[in-house]
Amino acid sequence: MKALIVIDVQNDFCPGGALAVPNGDEVVMIINSMMNKFDRIIATQDWHPQNQISFASNHPGKNPFDEIEVNGYRQTLWPDHCVQGTKGADFHPHLNVTRMDLIVRKGTSPHVDSYSAFLENDRKTKTGLDGYLASIAADEVYLCGLATDFCVFYSAMDAREFGFQTAVIIDACRGIDIPTGNVERALNDMRARGIRIVRSAML
Ligand code: VGL
Ligand code: ZN
Q1: CA–centroid distance, residue 105 to ligand 1 (Å)
Q2: CA distance 185 to 33
Q3: Is the Cβ atom of 47 under 6 angstroms away from ligand 1?
Q4: From CA 144, how far away is CA 127, in angstroms rounded?
Q5: Fewest CB within 10 angstroms: 91, 110, 147, 163, which?
Q6: Which domains does the chain have, with CATH numbers?
Q7: Checking DSSP bridges between strand 67-70 and strand 73-76, what pairing results, if any?
Q8: pLDDT 10s digit of each residue in the chain, 203 long?
Q9: Closest CA to 168 of 157, 176, 183, 156
């Protein structure tokens, strides 16, 4: 049972969006064209309330990309993005959402952000995706989408941690790369953890 997890292919992460990932929109057609290789397709949607703790605008004197300490963990601050119900939070208009079996929304609490599709940034609170994948007997999990060094990275690491064979389809991802070198670091950390880095043509 092969599952594809499409991470955060939303307007705000594409050119012109509030937290645009360079060339983020290039993943859309690649993802659409490989959907037929999978038994189940899950999409995640970053879905923040306006008072989300990860928004720099909620911390007077702080700027986007600063870091703060929240209950003992580091949280990067971001421009306001993917606010619930806004156009920026919508999927990219060309993403084939009719094939999605499940949509997981994350970062929905004001108090804790969630990069991972599985666990929020407190590293404790579950989204429930691990249970869904277990209940459909998924054994292989493939990830793609935005951004390579944040939500794709944390989701892949957690997928592996929950015991799934995990691969990242690298040509169907784009990264933020802040600080510079962050994408390379993420790829190395994923490889070291036993996550395969593959290309869509290899599927
Ligand atoms: C993401 C930063 C903040 C992502 C989401 O999708 O990688 N990055 N929220
Ligand atoms: Zn976010």
Answers
A1: 12
A2: 28
A3: no
A4: 18
A5: 163
A6: 2-48+91-202 (3.40.50.850)
A7: antiparallel
A8: 999 999 999 999 999 999 999 999 999 999 999 999 999 999 999 999 999 999 999 999 999 999 999 989 999 999 999 999 999 999 999 999 999 999 999 999 999 999 999 999 999 999 999 999 999 999 999 999 999 999 999 999 999 999 999 999 999 999 999 999 999 999 999 999 999 999 999 99
A9: 156
* C-beta of residue 126 within 8 angstroms of C-beta of residue 158: no
- CA proximity to 175, closest of 44, 3, 19: 19
CA-based nearest residue to 107, from 82, 85, 88, 86: 82
The ligand minimizing its distance to the Cα of 10 is 1
Of the listed 14, 151, 158, 173, which one is catalytic? Answer: 151
Global pTM?
Answer: 0.97
Ligand 1, atom 8: nearest CA belongs to which residue? Answer: 150
DSSP state of 118: S
Lookup: tokens for 57: 């605008």
Query: What ligand 1 atom has the least distance to the C-alpha of 78?
Result: 3
Residues 94 and 185: their CA atoms lie apart, in Å, by 30
Rounded CA separation 116/202 (Å): 25
Q: Please tell me if the CB atom of residue 27 comes closer than 6 angstroms to any atom of ligand 1.
A: no
**147 CB under 6 A from ligand 1?**
yes
The verdict on the CB of residue 151 being under 6 Å from ligand 1 is: yes
Amino acid 158 reads: D
Gap between the Cα atoms of 46 and 84, Å rounded: 9
